[in-house]
Design a protein that fits this description.
mainly alpha, 6 helices
C-alpha cells in the first residue's frame, strides 16, 4: 500500500511536469517522457522511459497505444485500477487536441490522481489504527493469561 501511494504521488509529480512542459515550453511528448525517465521513483521512471521508447519507435501508432504497451512492460508498477484507467484515458486523448484541450485533460487526470492519493492515505491511516488496536488487544490478552 505504501509503495502504491508513493507511485501515485510520483505519477502526480510527473503529470505536473508534463503539464508545465506543454504549457510553457511546448516540448514534444517523447522528449518530455525521456526526461521523466530520470525520475526518483524507479518504476515510474521506467514506465516513462518505455513510453518514450514506444513513441520514438516506428511501430507505435498513437500515444494511447504506447501507454498501454509501457504499462504492460513495466515490472513493479503497482498502480490501482483507477490510476491505470486515468492514465489510459489521459494518454488516449493527449496529442489529439490543441494545447488548451491537452492541459484540461491533464488537469482532470491530476484531480483524479489526487483523489486516489487521498483515498490511499485514508486507507493507510485506517489500517494503521486497526493494527494499533490489534496490538493493544493482544497485549491485554497476554497480560490476562499471565495473571
Amino acid at each position: 500500500m505504501k509503495r502504491q501511494q508513493a507511485q501515485t504521488l510520483a505519477l502526480i509529480d510527473a503529470l505536473l511536469r508534463i503539464r508545465h512542459e506543454l504549457q510553457y515550453r511546448l516540448t514534444p511528448l517523447p522528449e518530455i517522457f525521456s526526461a521523466l525517465g530520470g525520475g526518483r521513483n524507479r518504476e515510474i521512471a521506467d514506465f516513462f522511459s518505455r513510453f518514450a521508447a514506444g513513441l520514438s519507435s516506428a511501430q507505435t501508432c498513437t500515444v494511447g497505444y504506447a501507454c498501454r504497451q509501457a504499462l504492460a512492460q513495466t515490472h513493479g508498477l503497482c498502480l490501482s485500477g483507477t490510476a491505470r484507467g486515468t492514465l489510459l484515458s489521459l494518454f488516449g486523448s493527449l496529442g489529439k487536441y490543441d494545447l488548451d484541450g491537452s492541459v484540461q485533460a491533464l488537469d482532470l487526470a491530476l484531480s483524479r490522481l489526487r483523489e486516489e492519493a487521498r483515498t490511499l492515505q485514508s486507507g493507510a491511516a485506517a489500517r494503521c489504527k486497526t493494527y494499533l488496536t490489534l496490538g493493544i488487544c493482544t497485549g491485554l490478552a497476554v497480560a490476562v493469561i499471565l495473571i
